[in-house]
Amino acid sequence: MKHVKARSQAASPAVAEVSDAIFSQPQPPADFTFGEKVAAVFDDMLDRSIPFYQEIQRMIGEMATDVAVDGTNIYDLGCATGNTLLRLHPVVPRRIRFVGVDYSEQMLKRCREKLTGHATGRDCELICADLNQGVHIENASMVLLVLTLQFVRPLYRDTLIKSILQGLNDNGALILVEKVLGEDSLFNRLFIRYYYEMKKRNGYSEMEISQKREALENVLVPYKLMENREMLLRAGFRYCEVFFKWYNFCGIIALK
């Protein structure tokens, strides 16, 4: 586990955004990884692949104004390039400390550059760690799992959720955003089709969609919405509420 401080008083050059064309050419079968190529195009990938991504981010920031507590920590588990932390920076008190965790050094490099350039004066710590091996949470008023839990092996998900609950302060919130399976196989097929149509509207070709689907097949393992909700309640969260739903994507906020 590596810890890196990302604290600065001076802005750095903005991180250039590159268009996602990773799967635009035929490729041999391989599992999806969050390496340098993905990190370079990740922000564009999110905007074009996640329905209402910017609105979800805005909603997370809005909820943070009511649940984030001055003098506590906010953890972003699977922080990637830091989009959610940057969204929270202008709307939560300055004495809240940000902790970003990701297992990809390449993602953390981009996150560090963004935070250094924009989260001026904020105490931020970035940790390179595998969430399958657990995580230490302390003095947290808010923990984020934004499109992250689906990449944690199902065997370790209950343990991870329990450790988050233990590290949250009373009335602290966990925000979970996930790709989900439909409750019924018919709806599941329909929702997946609608999702791929959205990706086509955003400029992805049939080949790009197909190749990425195959690359993610053994890496991204979604649950049903109710399975995620039951897992949160089983861990001991008091309340769980769906704040976003679009076909096969959902957002849940849970309170300790």
Short characterization:
The protein has 256 residues and is of the alpha/beta class.
Characterize the structure shown.
The chain has 256 residues and is of the alpha/beta class. It has one domain (29-255): Vaccinia Virus protein VP39 (Rossmann fold, 3-Layer(aba) Sandwich), CATH 3.40.50.150. Helices cover 40% and strands 23% of the residues. It has helices spanning 36-49, 53-67, 83-88, 105-118, 154-167, 185-201, 206-216, 225-235; strands at residues 2-5, 73-77, 97-102, 124-128, 140-146, 168-181, 223-224, 239-246, 249-255. The longest helix is centred in the last third of the chain and has 17 residues, at 185-201. The protein is globular, with a radius of gyration of 18 Å. The model is unreliable at 6-14 (pLDDT under 50).
Low-confidence parts: 6-14
Write down the CATH topology.
Answer: Rossmann fold
Query: Number of helix segments?
Result: 8
Instruction: Specify the structural class.
Output: alpha/beta
Distance between the termini: 27 Å
List the helices and strands and how they pair.
Layout lengths: L1 E4 L30 H14 L3 H15 L5 E5 L5 H6 L8 E6 L2 H14 L5 E5 L11 E7 L7 H14 E14 L3 H17 L4 H11 L6 E2 H11 L3 E8 L2 E7 L1
Parallel strand pairs: 2-3, 2-5, 3-4, 5-6, 6-7
Antiparallel strand pairs: 1-4, 6-9, 8-9
Name its key features.
40% helix; alpha/beta; Rossmann fold; nine-stranded mixed beta sheet; 256 residues
